[in-house]
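Page 42, continued from yesterday. The earlier attempt failed because a stray header line got pasted into the input along with the sequence. Redoing it now with the clean sequence only.
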Amino acid sequence: MKLTTHHLADPRAWQPSLDPSMDSANTLVLAFGATQFFDGAASLTELARLYPRSVLLGCSTAGEIMDTQVHDASLSVAVVRFEHTVLRRASAAVVEPADSYAAGADLARQLVGDELRAVFVLSDGLCVNGTQLVEGLVAALPASVCVTGGLAGDGSDFKRTWVLEQGQPMAGRVTAVGFYGSRVRVGHGCDHGWSEFGPSRRITRAEGNVLYELDGKPALQLYKSYLGELAAGLPGTALLYPLAVWRHDDDKQHLVRTILAIDEAQQTMTFAGDIPLDGIARLMRSTNDKLIDSASQAVGRAAAGAAPGDALVVSVSCVGRRLLLGERTDEELETIRDSAAPTAGHVGFYSYGEISPALGGVGGELHNQTMTVTVISET
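This time it went through. Structure tokens are written below.
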């Protein structure tokens, strides 16, 4: 495989310049950019023009990752031409959360085929139920296929997100690429670094990704009581205090869930993924050092599944982690880069939801407030 990475901070100049000779049917072009490209997409159109035969995927972000730094108002791009791997692109509409499972199943139907090894998926970040999307996708794929990716971001504004469709940024879309062949290697890893605190609460009323009640009390009211003066900044400040959720009382591992929206009239909170009825919820918090250490754990697991030599490293981390890390955000990315092969290229984005198999699991699952790393290589 041949790999190049490119960054566009000045609309007039890619660094380094794009190389159209990389275009082929087995070339993957990944583009992660600011929400503002919704309004002026000349640079995205240029990618489609220079790489007409390639598989082009991309989405908006809460920060664009390029090597060891996070940027805003820019584009981070990776171009990978495979020698022995076949690529196939799929897309589906997701206009509202109820469409999510069907959209995932639709993607799977388009991608199922001989020697399918892995799927990387990018989704609209606001009108989707990420849990249902991933469940629909995984249910229709062979159990051996790993699913990674993420939900598009919009900084900490939660107003609009885009996904590339035919080279144009669009809302309400989900896209994916399938990797086929015996010589492709896709390693994956995830870790969050958050710790629970406070009492455990029973989820007494929830529908899909909407939480109504904890211990029989309005969920938003109870959550605000913990946040105190920070409650005025909801939903953005909720990124600093996600929920740990257990589906069953005897579950040994929990999922992390973060808030996308609140409804003052109904006193509800809407999350990026499902909230299990009759499950357990508990507040979470973290420190900078714990978050950075969790990035090291994630890349270590992902790199273990890669082949020696050139590799594409794609990091998808949550916007909440970036808000908490602040000026130390680059340290999370330096940890990823330091643990990857010297010849690897590193791109990615800060997201509204991360997709990766759970620790020790197969298939894929939606995570929040988690660093997920995908390492793609060939033997």
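Notes: The longest strand covers residues 195-207.
Reminder to self: strip header lines before submitting.
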